[in-house]
Amino acid sequence: MSENTPCPQCGSEYPYPSGLLMICPECAHEWNPNEVEEVSTEDGGLVVKDSNGKILKDGDTVVIIKDLPVKGFSKSIKVGTKVNNIRLTDGDHNIDCKIGEFGSMSIKSEFVKLG
Hints:
There is one protein chain. The protein is an all-beta fold and 115 residues long. Helix content is 0%, strand content 28%. The N and C termini lie far apart (35 Å).
């Protein structure tokens, strides 16, 4: 196990070993360095993962895993809502999509799973 392995989530240079896992003191991410896979795309472009760590692509269908409040609406997007034909973008809210009565919006990939 290499102690010089940077954090795969935030890139910190200061992770430390704790048993079989590595722990990042900056973002609190824990991972097994033996299971971390190098992710590369053919075009070297954007890599976006869902809440389960699966890589998403443009045009995928995802399912919302948490009730999401929406500014300007009295109700929220409910758990289990299917979202078709997503587009991946760079930034904090890295999924652009259209959701029925809510219209076009951006969602964080941590609140969806591939479905």
